[in-house]
Design goal:
The protein is mostly beta strands and about 160 residues long. The protein has a single domain, classed as Lipopolysaccharide (LPS) transport protein A like domain (lipopolysaccharide transport protein A fold, Sandwich). It is built from 1 helix and 12 strands; from the N terminus they run αββββββββββββ. Strands 1, 2, 3, 4, 5, 6, 7, 8, 9, 10, 11 and 12 form a 12-stranded antiparallel β-sheet that branches. A hairpin with a 4-residue loop joins strand 6 and strand 7. The longest helix has 23 residues. The radius of gyration is 17 Å and the shape is elongated. The termini are far apart.
Length: about 160
Amino acid sequence: MSKQLFISSLLSVFLIFNNIHAEEKSQRLKGPIVITSETLTVDNEAHTALFEKSVVARTTDSTLYADKMLVYYHPDTGDISKINAEGHIKLMRGTRAIISNEATYYAEGEKIIFTGEPRAVEGENVVTGRKITYFLNDDRFLVEDSKVFLKKKRGQ
C-alpha cells in the first residue's frame, strides 16, 4: 500500500469517527462525512488536510463536490472547525442543489456560505444572489441581493 493511500485511508477513518462523536454533542450534519479526492496533503503543524482534484464530501443526506477542499481540524480532538471549498462547488441535498465558485463550511453555527455567483436550484425554480448562507440544522437559506426565478405551472 502506498504511503499516500495509507494516509488518505487513515484520515478518512479518522474523519468518520470524529463526526460520529461530534453528532453526540449537537445536531450536526447527518452521519459521518467521507471525503474522497485524487490527492491529499496533510499538514499536521497547520492542522489542515488539503483535498484536490475531483473532491467529493458525502454524508447520509448531502453531497458536496469541489475542485479543492481545505479542511481545518482541532489539534487535540480532531473535530472539523471549517472547510474552505473552491472551484465548481455543488451541494446536493434532497431535490435541491446549491452551485457556486466558492463555499465555506463553519462547524460553529452549522452553516455553509456560498459566494462567487451562487445559485440555489430546485426543479425549474432558481434563486441567485451575491451570497447564499445555508443553515444546515434549520434547512433554511439567507440570500443577499436576491433574484428569484419561478417557473409557472401550465394553466396558471
